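Input (structure):
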């Protein structure tokens, strides 16, 4: 029976690390790191995510600002707001909650955030630095996945890691981070011929797909670490992951639950990234 990788408990540890760092940074530099979150429209899931992010920021003692814009806001106004925050010296980190309403070009918005304030690590400058193996802002969910794997104490080096999903925000960066830690990495996706045959190779299996219960117990190698990034809603409104928890926990050595696994870690790593943005902007703080 697998041990539970408790993202809620680990995220509390990370947030406490940030809380201590905020105190130190304020004492040293005379101001706290500041995260600015922009939300456009009333998407209920986005509202919950943003609320949790602002709550986490408050817990760590950093400053946070929430900018709420109506779904009718023009792309030009949103870009203007981002430009304003880019040049505001009191703002260290900017997050634009996705998805955006259809009439706004998400790519344009991602490109508009100053790379040093790009707390999500989505700007092409940060993406290219990640793929070049240079210091950069690592996207929050992939960073959280790595911290969860590290908390098992298992050495990633030399392990076979299979990442199911190849999105720019989760699958690809997770794969790159695992590669950087000397795992042998396979990326599976919707055209993978025999998914089970691939996932059964994995010492470390990360599912980031968006399909409830896609990964079944018979697809898991005995003793594997299973990380479930998926957040799906069942018909009765409950949250579930991409991993069939009951059957997979029979096979895995460690497994993340949904909720309470990767989700809280994403928010905790956002706090870490805000500190990182602060340090990159304050001379001598790195
Ligand atoms: P995307 O929809 O952008 O990507 C999904 C990926 O899964 C694609 O690469 C797709 O392949 C692949 N895929 C789809 N169907 C299958 C299949 N049957 N077998 C194998 N691969 C398949 O999703 P995201 O990466 O943005 O998100 C993935 C999940 O993670 C979602 O549930 C999302 O809600 C959740 N999420 C959770 C976060 C957290 O904080 N916990 C943060 C971000 C996302 P192809 O490329 O071929 O289409």
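Output (sequence):
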């Amino acid at each position: 029976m697998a041990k539970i990788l408790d993202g809620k408990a680990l995220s509390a540890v990370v947030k406490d690390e940030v809380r201590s760092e905020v105190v130190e940074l304020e004492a040293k530099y005379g101001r706290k790191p500041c995260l600015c979150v922009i939300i456009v429209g009333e998407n209920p899931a986005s509202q919950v995510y943003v609320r949790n992010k602002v709550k986490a920021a408050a817990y760590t003692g950093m400053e946070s600002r929430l900018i709420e814009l109506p779904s009718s806001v023009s792309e030009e106004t949103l870009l203007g707001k981002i430009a304003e925050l880019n040049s505001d010296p009191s703002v260290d980190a900017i997050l634009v909650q996705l998805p955006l309403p259809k009439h706004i070009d998400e790519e344009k918005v991602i490109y508009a955030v100053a790379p040093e304030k790009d707390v999500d690590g989505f700007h092409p400058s940060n993406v290219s630095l990640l793929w070049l193996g240079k210091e950069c802002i690592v996207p929050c969910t992939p960073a959280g996945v790595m911290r969860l794997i590290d908390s098992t104490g298992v050495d990633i080096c030399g392990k076979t890691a299979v990442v199911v999903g190849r999105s720019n925000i989760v699958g690809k960066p997770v794969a790159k981070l695992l590669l950087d830690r000397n795992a042998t990495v396979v990326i599976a996706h919707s055209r993978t011929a025999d998914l089970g045959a691939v996932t059964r190779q994995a010492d470390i299996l990360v599912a980031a797909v968006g399909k409830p219960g896609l990964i079944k117990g018979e697809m898991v190698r005995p003793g594997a670490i299973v990380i479930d990034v998926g957040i799906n809603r069942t018909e009765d409104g409950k949250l579930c992951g991409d991993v069939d928890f009951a059957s997979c926990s029979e096979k895995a050595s460690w497994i993340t639950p949904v909720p309470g696994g990767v989700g809280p870690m994403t928010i905790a790593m956002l706090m870490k990234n805000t500190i990182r943005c602060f340090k990159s902007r304050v001379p001598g703080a790195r």
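Notes: The first helix runs from residue 7 to 29. The chain has two domains: 29-115, 140-263.
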